[in-house]
Amino acid sequence: MIHREQHASVTVLRLEHGKVQALDVELCNEIGAAFEGVDDWRETRAVVLTGTGSSFSAGVDLYRVLEGGAAYVDQFLPALDRACAAIFRCPKPVVGALNGHAIAGGMILACACDVRVMANGKGRMGVTELSVGVPFPWLALEILRLSTPVEHLQELLYLGQTYTPAESLARGLVDEVVEADKLAARALELADRLARIPQPAFALPKRQLRQHSLEQWKLQSAHEHMVRLAWHDPETLAAIKRFLDATLKK
Fold first, then answer.
1. Structural domain of 111
2. Cα-flanking dihedrals φ and ψ of residue 2, to 5°?
3. Residue 60 forms beta bridges with which residues?
4. Does residue 141 lie within any of the structural domains?
């Protein structure tokens, strides 16, 4: 599910899961485990996170949600939180190399990175959760809030639109757009630049910027309970099915 390559002091983690790196329990737990172990990789001073083919990650595997129902949701939401939190609090620099679509949960993973560079092409970014009919977990929305310019946040959340690379850059959703054949090299260049910063000097301000959000997340049990109930709700499941049926017809 995750292919690991070493380039000097930079570790590249490539998501390889199905056609579009759809997020399910298994992939989320693999992402979580990988980033939770980064601090123990002595040769690693920075990480590049990327995808495969036309997608960085197209978001939650909604078919698994429909098939598994409440029992699956109760496993999936903590796994999704684990993946988001592990990237978000990784003490080493993380560069998101968006090789294609970064949609919904896939965009949240990208936003948890420190720097985002996107390939020019047909890939799109956006959070479609409300269009699908599901609420955001608390940490996912907090990551989005901290990484998105405030003037574009409500448009991003409420309208559920997806954006081209140029539109994503204009809205501050990514830091750079490069041609697809230059993406890997540019991501490694950025990661190497960040890797040259003494690790404590990088880790401490990163922790200062994000620690409050992580501490508040631990206090959100009531909110997370409401999120789980919403994902269990028959009306939500019906909305997911309508969204998938409409998508298949396109």
1. 2-180
2. -130, 120
3. 23
4. yes
Looking at the structure of the chain, the number of domains it has is 1
Do the domain assignments include residue 247?
no
Nearest to 13 by CA among 188, 155, 231, 244: 188
Report the pLDDT value the prediction gives residue 247, as an integer from 0 to 100: 76
Ranges of beta strands (E only) in the chain are: 2-7, 10-15, 46-50, 55-57, 94-98, 101-103, 115-120, 125-126, 176-179
- Cα 57 from Cα 22, distance rounded (Å): 6
Q: Is residue 35 part of a domain?
A: yes
Instruction: Kindly report the backbone phi and psi dihedral angles of residue 93, in degrees, each rounded to the nearest multiple of 5, phi listed first.
Output: -60, 140
For residue range 58-72, list pLDDT tens digits in order: 999 999 999 999 999
DSSP state of 136: P
Q: pLDDT tens digits, residue range 15-41?
A: 999 999 999 999 999 999 999 999 888
| Structure tokens that stand for 105 in this block | 């949960």
CATH code for position 138: 3.90.226.10
- Rounded to an integer, the average pLDDT of 153-166 is 94
Angle, alpha carbons 242-246-249 (nearest 5°): 145
Dihedral sign computed on CA atoms, order 74, 134, 114, 11: positive
Q: How confident is the model at residue 249 (pLDDT cuts 50, 70, 90)?
A: low
Q: What is the pLDDT of residue 179?
A: 98
In a domain, 222, yes or no: no
